[in-house]
Amino acid sequence: MRRRKMKPIHMERTIYGDGSGDSLANVIELPGVGRHEQIHVAGWPPLDPFVEGSSGFWSMSAEGALNHSQQYAIESQSFVLHATAVLSDAGIDVMRTKGSPIMGTPLGGCSAIIGPDGRVLKKANTGGEELIIADIDLTDATKAKLFADASGHYSRPDLLWLGADTTRKTVVRVQKSADGRTEASE
Predict the structure, then answer these.
(1) What is d(CA 85, CA 46) in angstroms, rounded to the nearest whole number?
(2) CA angle 159, 163, 166 (to 5 degrees)
(3) For a designed S-S bond to 115, which of 53, 87, 91, 119 qualifies (C-beta 3.0 to 4.6 A apart)?
(4) Which residues face 112 on adjacent strands?
(5) Is residue 113 part of a domain?
(6) CA dihedral of residues 66, 71, 73, 74 (deg, nearest 10)
């Protein structure tokens, strides 16, 4: 599967551009599993623990990012694999960021596996790289959707809807003008 994030945020903007409509409905179909998302992978950068009174954003701390992923699990009624990067001294040396306020000190991982009700099923010990494993039952996602399905029973497409253009867009497009001339637009 190929997918691009619709809108890169924070430091991602220095490398990545906007995604296109062809990434809106990318879900890997597995045998016996419908097209609705049941497992979401949420990738996060290395994250510091939040320090009360600091100038940093709680939302971009280890605790804040976990909260974001838990909220996503609740809203989508899907399992979330909350994966955070680990930053080592070797990585800092390669990036030449030692002592910088962002990615200037080693950070352990704080990954977790979250259930479709927002509950943390398994959490890393935050000391470094670690493999975390949890048994999941995909019927738990179905149970959560039966309780409050925002895109099913509780949706009102007769009153509210979201349109989406799922075609791939290129940066430069060639099109015909009203008088038949070919024009390039960006």
Answers:
(1) 5
(2) 155
(3) 119
(4) 82, 123
(5) yes
(6) 150
Contact between 42 and 58 under an 8 Å Cβ cutoff? The reply is no
pLDDT value of residue 150: 65
Q: Look at residue 5 and tell me if it is in a domain.
A: no
- Look up the pTM and report it: 0.72
> How many domains does the chain contain in total?
1
Q: What does the alpha-carbon distance between residue 95 and residue 85 come to, in Å, rounded to a whole number?
A: 15
Who contacts 151 (Cβ-Cβ below 8 Å, separation ≥6)?
Answer: 36
Amino acid at site 82: H
Task: Identify which has the larger pLDDT, 97 or 160.
Answer: 97
Condensed to tens digits (0 to 9), the pLDDT of residues 94-127 reads: 999 998 887 888 988 889 999 999 999 999 886 7
The domain of 143 spans 26-155
Instruction: Give one word for 8, left, alpha or beta, with left for phi > 0 and alpha for psi -120 to 50.
Output: beta
Looking at residue 107, the DSSP 8-state letter turns out to be: B
CATH of the domain at 114: 3.60.110.10
Task: Give the tokens for residue 74.
Answer: 């609740």
Measured distance between the N- and C-terminal CA atoms of the chain, rounded to whole angstroms: 27
Asked if residue 13 is part of any domain, the answer here is: no
Domain assignment present for 115: yes
Give the phi and the psi of residue 14 in degrees, each rounded to 5: -75, -15
